[in-house]
């Protein structure tokens, strides 16, 4: 693209992304702080990628997802995952109709725009796998029939990192379908003070008004894909991904015994798409290396397998990703 084309695209993206300000403003009525979590939910929304939030209880994970869904005039269903949940409770099942003497399809709560899978790791693998087809293919098969899901469709899941009893860790095939795994931290002192005041002294609970329509999200996703990405940025993404698989080729020999497996090709796709969405959120029509750096950890931290040696040395995936980012030359 020429500089004139990029300038025209930049102006168009600036116009198309105008609704982001009102969406952020509406969610901030309820959510205090947690800017990183809110931005990553918006990133997943613009990219069409599912988001897994991991954090301690009481950090507004569920509230943030419900608030975002309320700000968008679209369908929303919350599913509380429990050990006795069945796949049919999510996708639906065939029900016998005695009047017509035939089986009819009764659709489950997955047939909506936004699914909140609350505490997803509290249900066994057969229930978790019920979401796999919906997340990847955007369709659900019940009996002999397959049904397309409405767009936009997004799975937003939460899990608690500290509870071990009664939980079922998500398998790699499941976590790889989440574009982002966002680890949520505690609010700072001033934010927590605001949370106390909001819950003790506000007489009226803030209500979130729908400010965006599903059509707006679909159009925004089309605009995100138009954001310009230079060949050098693509090479930068590939260098980061391949460094997780073959660290010795990038002068990171000491990381090789710490990594049991590297990032999948989905990581490359999501890193490129996420970088474009990040640029869109900042009202730019082109990707810069900082877009990659900002989202890299959330996209890669559940796609790199740690070896026993890394766990014994208390080395996290975030540590490995940071080493790789600092090593790879920025274009």
Layout: helices, strands, pairs:
Layout: H1 3-16, H2 19-27, H3 35-47, E1 50-55, H4 61-70, E2 76-80, H5 88-91, E3 92-97, E4 102-107, E5 114-118, H6 125-128, H7 132-137, E6 139-142, E7 145-148, E8 154-159, H8 172-175, E9 178-184, H9 189-200, H10 214-226, H11 231-245, E10 259-261, H12 265-281, H13 289-300, E11 305-306, H14 308-312, H15 317-327
Parallel strand pairs: 1-8, 1-9, 2-5, 5-8
Antiparallel strand pairs: 3-4, 6-7, 10-11
Helix pairs in contact: 3-4, 3-12, 10-12, 11-12, 12-13, 13-15
Shape: globular
Q: Provide mean pLDDT, rounded.
A: 85
Main-sheet strand order equals 2-5-8-1-9
So, CATH architecture of the largest domain?
A: 3-Layer(aba) Sandwich
Parts with pLDDT < 50 across at least 5 consecutive residues: none
CATH superfamily of the largest domain: P-loop containing nucleotide triphosphate hydrolases
What proportion of the residues form beta strands (DSSP E)? 15-25%
Helix content: 40-55%
Instruction: Describe the largest sheet.
Output: 5 strands, parallel
> Measured on Cα atoms, how large is the radius of gyration?
21 Å
Q: Which CATH class of the largest domain is shown? A: Alpha Beta
Provide the structure class.
alpha/beta
Instruction: Write down the domain tally.
Output: 2
The end-to-end distance, rounded to whole angstroms, is 18 Å
